[in-house]
Amino acid sequence: MYLPKHFACEDRAALADFLNTYSFGILLSQTQGELVSSHLAILFDEDLKYAYGHLAKANPQWKAWQETPSVDLIFHGPHAYISPQDYASPGHVPTWNYASVHAKGEIQIFDGVEEKVAVLKRLVEHYESSRDQPWSMSEELSAANGKINAIVCFRIKMVGIDFKKKLSQNQSSADRKQVVSNLRTRDGIWDSSVADMMDLCSIKSSPIEKDGSSPFPRSTKR
Q1: Which fold has domain 5-200?
Q2: What's the CA gap between 34 and 114, in Å, rounded?
Q3: Please, which pLDDT band fits residue 217 given cuts at 50, 70 and 90?
């Protein structure tokens, strides 16, 4: 991912919150030299070292993972079109503000029933947690009903993560404030969310490491 320094977010807590909120991503891998992808729900552990998910066994993407375990993940957050008329000053061009995460890792397939059940329980408990009466999955039911054999569960060991927030950090304070104000008058599905992100995002990134180094490995070079 193209990642200018002023758009790189190095806040680990913000990254974890983003991945937790926008966990429906794209998993990309190589199959006989061809790039293939699947849209999947993928959850990270607390330290962001591993990610977990599953896909249908009928999906052929998984068959190449043992020989080619390197995979990429993409997670999209809120995004919005920015018009030249949204700025306080003249001389701008149309652009797009957004937040996204690109990650690289090594994927491992889980074959055992207990491992599969653990992955499924992790996913179910996460997505059911906001419901008034969460649905629960018993290990006995999952192992016995046969459906667990129709999926492939996996774990991805992270080797690099890039978190990009392109939120007009390279513009003046007056222009940023005007963009936020204009976004709040629009009714696009993500306009208010992008405005909120811009309000929270400082002009300069704030890495948690005192020496300015990234708190997690980069997945791409700048």
Answers
A1: Pnp Oxidase; Chain A (2.30.110)
A2: 32
A3: low
